[in-house]
Amino acid sequence: MAYKDRILEVEPLGTEFVPEQARHGTPRALFGLWFSANAEIATWMVGLFTVALYGTSLRGAIAGIIIGNLMGFGLLGILSTFGPRYGIPQMVASRLAFGWSGNALPAALSFLAGVGWFAINTVFGSYALQSVTGLNYFLSLVLMLGLQIALAVYGYNMIHAFERVAAYLLAAGFIVLGILTFSKANFGAPFNSHAPFAAGGELGGFILATALGFSYAMGWVPCASDYSRYLASSTSARKIWLYSFLGCAVPCILLEIMGAATISATGNIDLSNASPTQAINALLGSGLVAKIVLLTVVLGTLTSNCMNLYSGALAALVVKFPTPSPRGPLTIAAVFAVITTALLLVAHAAPLAILLTAATTALIVGIAARFSLPRWQAAIFVGIVGALLATGGGHPDKTAALYTDGLLLLSYWASPWAAVVFVDWTFRRHRGYHANDAFQDSPAIRPGTLAWLGGLAASIPFWNQAWFTGPFAANHPQYGDLSYYVGFIVAALLMLITRKKRTAAADVSA
């Protein structure tokens, strides 16, 4: 209760329900929070990849970016309304559709996604800090890690306050980059058939640009209500949706278009394997303006990563099984070992790398599923895991490629997950809610688990990325990557059918 709106106090709550007496804040604060989280270099790189990797024309990239972001962040706005309604983090609310045990797998994926993006963004930010200050990579990395972990440890109020102030500085820095980019860009730049993953012509490029914009948004959806759950339950749902949607869509659309325009603005230099720092230097050189933009990159890394770490820690706590039996943690650890091994085999990784990565992934997930920690300790745990991954980021070109592959893989699970949660919400939104529905009264498996797995399985033939190309995508490259939409639609239909059958059965029994 004493926490309320205090900034310099460690948040005491983790995955617990936030009581009404502890609620505070206004929905307007969500705009600054989401703006800062997305006004960062990873967003800019999404736009750059649409052209540098997939050869999309600039006009096609712009259209795809706008459509993908509007769809993805429209959904994020809806899930943000769960915060004041339910008073719990997003992955806890996911139990309403998945059940306690069924929710463990998507929660673990959300936890690993938070760790992964934290590590990759830290590498980008550390290189930017190194370029500006002249410090070596390791020292730059230590500074970035320390600041990010401190923000996540303090928690909800500190993150909101930091993001609110950072929004003004980030807007100023990216305005400078935007003016210089758009003044040099060729908006008539055509489809580039010589790009590394160019396939399917203009239509394929447009669909891929749409998919990239949508998939980036899907990366944030699993933590949407984490940052609105302290708002009073009477807070206007329309205002929550509007401020969350605009806070995400405005910076993402502008920065992704800016990234796409960078290719023609740099004279079509090959940036397909470039790190953000290399891409900025290609556009701006190494003078004062470049240093200002690189400082913006550093700040953007902090704003994005403190949220990746915070939500990753909450997701890690949600993975915890309710019984002391080791069977659940061992099972989910084994599942992730198999998934990791399969992905690395497809990617033709070395046998030793496969063994070490699969064992490490299983160990991390198993620990999260077995042990209970206070939220601030979980943040440190996730930060340490991400730090260990980031220390291996000695090759920025490889890190950029890893970012692209990770972004696409992330959305493959998140898209059907979001569909299940959305359909479940449509059935619940006019009903009363009790906190126990997501805690001790939650059954082990709910229908959403099977609907999610069904949607994910249906999307596999449509996957189209560096590590794996499904049969449909291989035979029909002109359609780009349709997996996000197929997974979402199939999962939503399965969930809709199941929910309607359950409602009909309940009516008959009554």
Task: Characterise this structure.
This protein is an all-alpha fold and 510 residues long. It has a single domain, classed as Hydantoin permease. The chain has 20 helices and no strands. The protein has helices spanning 29-38, 41-52, 58-80, 82-86, 90-93, 95-98, 104-133, 137-154, 156-184, 201-220, 237-265, 276-284, 288-319, 327-346, 351-370, 375-390, 396-428, 447-459, 471-475, 483-509. The chain starts with 28 loop residues before the first helix and ends with a helix. The model is unreliable at 506-510 (pLDDT under 50).
Summarize the structure.
By secondary structure, the protein is mainly α.
Characteristics of this structure?
about 500 residues; mainly alpha; Hydantoin permease
Helix and strand topology:
Layout: H1 29-38, H2 41-52, H3 58-80, H4 82-86, H5 90-93, H6 95-98, H7 104-133, H8 137-154, H9 156-184, H10 201-220, H11 237-265, H12 276-284, H13 288-319, H14 327-346, H15 351-370, H16 375-390, H17 396-428, H18 447-459, H19 471-475, H20 483-509
Strand content: under 5%
CATH 4th-level superfamily: Hydantoin permease
Proportion of residues in helical segments: over 70%
Largest sheet: none
Cα distance spanning the termini:
41 Å
The CATH architecture = Orthogonal Bundle
Whole-number count of domains: 1
Task: Count the E strands.
Answer: 0
Helix and strand pattern: HHHHHHHHHHHHHHHHHHHH
Shape: globular
Indicate the mean pLDDT: 86
The CATH class label is: Mainly Alpha
Number of helices: 20
In CATH, the topology is named Hydantoin permease
User: Rounded to an integer, what's the Rg over CA atoms?
Assistant: 22 Å
Q: What class do helices, strands and sheet pairing give? A: mainly alpha
Low-pLDDT runs: 506-510
